[in-house]
Design a protein that fits this description.
- The protein has 3 helices and 3 strands.
- The chain is α+β, with helices and mostly antiparallel strands.
- It has a domain at 38-82.
- A 3-stranded antiparallel β-sheet has the order 1-2-3.
- It is rod-shaped.
- The N and C termini lie far apart (61 Å).
Length: 99
Amino acid sequence: MKTALTLSIGLLLITLCVAHAFGDDITSMKKPGRHHNPPPEAYTACEGKSAGDSAEFVNPHGETVTGICELQETRLVLRPERPPRDDSDTTKMDNNINN
């Protein structure tokens, strides 16, 4: 009886360790570099503007972000313009990987 109990506890501990090691953690599913909320600069860029107005700000990487102000809850926030995806860039990357 003692051996069965020890074996059961051992299997339970192994199962818990494996589940913890390979389990999906919500925080690990986030894409790096992605914000769930706009940065403070996106709000500041739209101060004194109306919904639909163009605005811009410089992000921490020194890049100018341009877009349109839109109402989010009770405040205006800059929604960045997204340039169309250039599939040739991914083709170049694929070619570099394959060579």
